[in-house]
Amino acid sequence: MAVLFHHPLCPHSRFIRLVLAEYGLEAELVEERVFDRRDEFLMINPAGETPVLVERSQLVVPGAGNIAEYLDETRGLALGTHRLMPEDPASRVEVRRLLDWFNGKFFAEVTNFLVTEKVYKRFMTSQAGGGAPNMDAVRAARANIRYHMSYIGWLTAKRNWLSGDQMTYADLAAAAHLSCADFLGDVPWTEDDTAKEWYARIKSRPSFRALLNDRVPGMTPGPAYADLDF
To answer: Is the pLDDT of residue 53 over 90?
Structure first.
């Protein structure tokens, strides 16, 4: 069985967990606190970031984008209509564009602030930068997420899913990031009904069940987090 080094509230890790579940692939989950900078983990991925997939062959695939491409190349063709990357080049470009949007822009403007300030810093030593959250960063994330919610709503008002007629990696990446903010109670669900309806569709999928059961010691998920009828 493959091994996935992850953190429960790392949005990039959540994205890959959703991908694995949608593809019906099992992996042993190993929680990694990247802020601990473990030598053993740094030997696997010198970048010191999650997620990292280690195949049974000991092939190491680091990073959400690399893992997603690897899984599409090695498993995607056999999945037919369940493939999470479209076959035609133009549609693949759009999926990759949205992957960059959510795993890059959304992360930089929203989830990195929220998860670092409200989760990681609780478990980091003071020497490593742990302690009370920087509320200016949290407020910035809460302001920024409104723009992203509007963009999700705009996309899904025009399309069945974010990138087109079928669910793709783009939807799973966006949902993974939103799920972290939702765990922390920082998603303004009244901001855009279309975005909320799209998220409710993904949240109700079997692949999401494991994420909804995630817990962090000493933290209670937001009131809408595990509620399918939120």
So the answer is: yes
The mean pLDDT value of the chain amounts to 96
Work out whether strand 2-6 and strand 52-54 pair parallel, antiparallel, or are unpaired: antiparallel
pLDDT digits (tens, 9 = 90+) for 102-121: 999 999 999 999 999 999 99
**Tokens for 118?**
């409200």
**Residue 125 carries which side chain, given as an amino acid letter?**
T
Q: Is the pTM of this model over 0.85?
A: yes
Number of domains within the chain? 2
What three-state secondary structure class fits 2? strand
CATH classification of the domain holding 69:
3.40.30.10
Q: Are 20 and 41 within one domain?
A: yes
Alpha-carbon distance of 36 to 65, in angstroms, equals 23
Task: Using alpha carbons only, give the angle 220, 105, 96 rounded to the nearest 5 degrees.
Answer: 110
Integer Rg of the chain from CA: 17
What is the rounded average pLDDT of the residues 55-79?
A: 95
| Pairwise CA distance, residues 41 & 52, whole Å | 9
